[in-house]
Amino acid sequence: MTLQRQTLFWIGALILLVLGLWLLREVLLPFVAGITLAYFLNPLADRLERLGVSRMVASLIMIAVVIFVFVLLTLLFLPILGTQISAFVQGLPNTITRLQTVLTDETREWLTKIMGERLPDLNKSLADIVTEGAKWMIGFLGSIWAGGQALFSIITLIVIAPVIAFYVLYDWHKMVAKVDGWVPVRHRETVRDLAVQMDRAIAGFVRGQAGVCLILGAFYAITLSLAGLNFGVLIGMISGLITFIPYVGSLTGLLLATVVAVAQFWPDWTWILLIVGIFFFGQFVEGYILQPKLVGESTGLHPVWLMFALFAFGYLFGFVGLLLAVPIAAAMAVLMRFALQQYMASSLYTGDEPVKKRTKGS
Length: 362
Known about the structure:
84% of the residues lie in helices and 0% in strands. It is an all-alpha fold. It has two domains: 26-178, no CATH class; 187-344. It is globular and about 70 Å long.
């Protein structure tokens, strides 16, 4: 009965947590962002504290550095990105028209051999694909945007999140000690061990994958621009950013760059293949150098599980869900591995009778 009560208690707590996130999703963004920022700045603040700096001063230094870097990056890249985004949106109809013209030109012998008699219907099919893809992308981005902007604008987020991050960072160890004191004494060591595993999984993946995204984003932006691709900086940075989503990010960047390259360079295959080659080289570097060095295998997050968590939480809770997806996915992966270990060590798996029953029978 004790096990049943504990199970029901934690299931009820999980249901209440999900319900609370869903009800408060429109006001949680600055708080979740601030707590997330404090979590990743805590190791640096601890290092300053070990060097003799007070916790308050260390927290202020960390938040000030983050604000300075954010402002610097905004001043450096916002004008460039703003110009490229504007040009991309304005030139999108022409790009789609150019692509359709290339694919539906009946004088192309290679296309006639592939499509045969279905060639006249290709124009309509392309239009349908573009329309459906645009609807899906707009709907997905709209759900994320609606979850993050209902009551707080981006300016409010920028103002509130650093303040929350400072207070959480300053009281981090007190908060952890308080929560640790709530854990039942009998299970405290087990819970602490699980918490350490969760922390390693979350920090290892997010910090490592963030480094991968930054390196690939810079590589794609520079190489695509040098290759003369229209909107090269924008496409490169988008490709690097969405690399956070395994497989989906790299494939999306490849398709986007290839479409723009075909519309821009056709019929010169040399430049088109160069653009494709840039992405294949980037994927080689990511898979064989960056991922093993920066992320490794210790995180325990399967790509399929991570993709599901990002899309599901992003759709349900907006941008707040995207921030919570990785830590929740990592925590659930650790708990599932722990539950599987307990099951395989139990009599339900081994088929052995409990020790007490064998003793009683003897």
